[in-house]
Amino acid sequence: MALKAGASAIGLVTEMPSGPGVISEIEVAKIAAAIGPRINTFLLTSKGDVPALFKQIGYCGVSTVQLCDRLENGTYRELKRAFPAVDIVPVIHVTGPASIDRALKIAPQVDGLLLDSGNPDLPVKELGGTGRSHDWEISRRIVELVDVPVYLAGGLNSGNVSEAIQTVQPFGIDVCSGVRSGNSLDMEKLASFIAAVKSAST
User: Fold this and answer.
1) Using 50, 70 and 90 to split pLDDT, how confident is the model at 120?
2) N or C: which terminus of the chain carries fewer CB neighbours within 10 A?
3) Predicted pLDDT at 202
4) Cα separation of 185 and 2, whole Å?
5) Domain 2-201: which topology?
6) Facing residues of 89 across strands?
7) Cα distances (angstroms) measured from residue 61 to each of 29, 33, 34, 196
8) What is the band of 40 on the pLDDT scale with cuts at 50, 70, 90?
């Protein structure tokens, strides 16, 4: 459905403490293999342990890893050395101005950043799929300051994505809940969202 709608990348969500769209690593590997190099495949992972990530990335065979939680054991550079052909894209949860400092610290070590709503400090971590937007002015400042591509996520839908793109000027857009009905992708919402993105980007 995402390919048909014109998506230029697909996010494949593995085990998370909360949020929609989770599938098994077996399904991730099958989808990534079937798509091949046609478009980017993003592995969304909550793992924060580098040895566990080595195993997961090697098994899933994706082109990009979206690290939705903080690394607690190991470094981004270790991941990059082990998988030089895989882009490493950590998530910065934009909760306030301190997110700018975190983005500046991490950016030189990775291939890109993804700015999302959520809160990894809650008892049940929110690592994405919240359906909430955040302060786009903070996101815009991060885009201006870092030297890597920045993706924007968080509460985006066909009604607000044009304003988000104009305000933040991100490299790319990531969406989850804004193109779903219940627990499934919605083709009508997908088509409407992608049309809005393309219109705002021309």
Assistant:
1) confident
2) C
3) 65
4) 8
5) TIM Barrel (3.20.20)
6) 66
7) 6, 7, 11, 31
8) very high
Q: Identify residue 196 by its one-letter amino acid code.
A: A
Residue written as tokens 């988000």? 164
CB neighbour class for 72 (10 Å; exposed up to 12, middle 13-18, buried from 19): exposed
pTM metric for this prediction: 0.91
Phi and psi, residue 3, nearest 5°: -65, -45
Model confidence at 177: pLDDT above 80: yes
Output the CA torsion sign for 72, 73, 77, 81: negative
- The span from the CA of 7 to the CA of 127, in Å, is 22
Work out the percent of the chain whose per-residue pLDDT is above 70: 98
Give the residue extent of every domain in the chain.
2-201
d(CA 56, CA 33): 15
Report whether 184 contacts 196 (CB < 8 A): no
- Mean pLDDT, the chain, whole residue set: 91
